[in-house]
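Lab notebook, bench 4. Still working through the backlog of constructs that have no structural model yet. Next entry is a single chain of 115 residues. Request: give me the structure tokens for it.
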Amino acid sequence: MTLLQLNALEFTKNTQIIIKFKERVCEETQLEIHYKNKCRILDHNKELNFQVLHSKTDINTLIKIYNKLEEVEYAEPNHMLKAFYTPKDLFSPISMALKKYKLLLLGMLRPVMKI
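Model written out:
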């Protein structure tokens, strides 16, 4: 199941946790633990070896359960945030720096030295 397969209510609620198992834990054991805790794997990052899980169970309870297991390196909530502001010019800091540099080259701006 991917993130897009969740309905809108599930996607906006904090129903996901990120789990990283210790290296020695086999995939079968991981799946058994997930099944026992009624969790579904939404995503598995094989490069960093962590999983994003979805559950209708209380997330804080699940995190405590997973963190107590000796097979788990860490468990934490998967916070989904929404951007509330998008700047019009993403390169504004760069363009301002270039303008200052151009003015310095033209001799119209004097460098400020801090001591």
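Notes after review: The longest strand covers residues 16-21. Helices lie at 8-12, 27-36, 59-68, 92-106. Flag for follow-up if needed.
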